[in-house]
Known about the structure:
Blueprint (H helix, E strand, L loop, with lengths): L6 H31 L1 E5 L3 H13 L3 H12 E3 L18 E5 L2 E3 L1 H23 L1 H4 L5 H43 L2 H9 L13 H13 L5 E2 H11 L13 H8 L2 E8 L2 E8 L2
Parallel strand pairs: 2-4
Antiparallel strand pairs: 1-3, 5-7, 6-7
Protein name: HTH OST-type domain-containing protein
InterPro entries: OST-HTH/LOTUS_dom
Organism: Hydrogenophaga crocea
Amino acid sequence: xxxxxxxxxxxxxxxxxxxxxxxxxxxxxxxxxxxxxxxxxxxxxxxxxxxxxxxxxxxxxxxxxxxxxxxxxxxxxxxxxxxxxxxxxxxxxxxxxxxxxxxxxxxxxxxxxxxxxxxxxxxxxxxxxxxxxxxxxxxxxxxxxxxxxxxxxxxxxxxxxxxxxxxxxxxxxxxxxxxxxxxxxxxxxxxxxxxxxxxxxxxxxxxxxxxxxxxxxxxxxxxxxxxxxxxxxxxxxxxxxxxxxxxxxxxxxxxxxxxxxxxxxxxxxxxxxxxxxxxx
Length: 280
């Protein structure tokens, strides 16, 4: 070590290096949190377990690995779709929940963003593995050069971190909006009754169909149940499940629209009586 070397300069290099690495760790921590929460699609009763699994999975990834996931499912080209649910392995009677937040952009903007994140990964690796190979921090001149480099590097890292904070804020807003929607009557109608926000009806998942199946299970004789008996039972046990709720004028209309039941009229004395059964 040269006699003229001033250790104060080296201490400042160490301080600036630590400043850069702390900022990178902040970036990594925020990115892990975002990627573990930005998409999920599983049966409703498994969501918490899946969330915990994702947090653990991303917790062990390097910055380079996180960047790959970032540009695979989060920051993507316009029109890109990534299916969230693997319906092939889910039982048909399970309630499914999915959420996905993406930043879609044109090719040019996506390339710029990818280059910026790749530069951040390169800077991180250089700081951790190669700084003292590039700069002789046991000389005043080497320390001066290292300090200038570290200050420039910190500015780049900080700009990437500020950018990521903006993405995280947008993700939080999207999740808050989704949570508010999930607590409202439109979402309840969609999930419980199969009535989508646009008014279309998923009859297989409709509340009125489930209730009628329940009535059949309890009261049917050889699979058939008189419609008037079902109506009385529905009024007593599921008064909110009415044909009008599903845009139907009558119970026979609802049965026909659902395509889940067979409707049959039988002559009884001087009147026609409606009976129905579930289609198999």
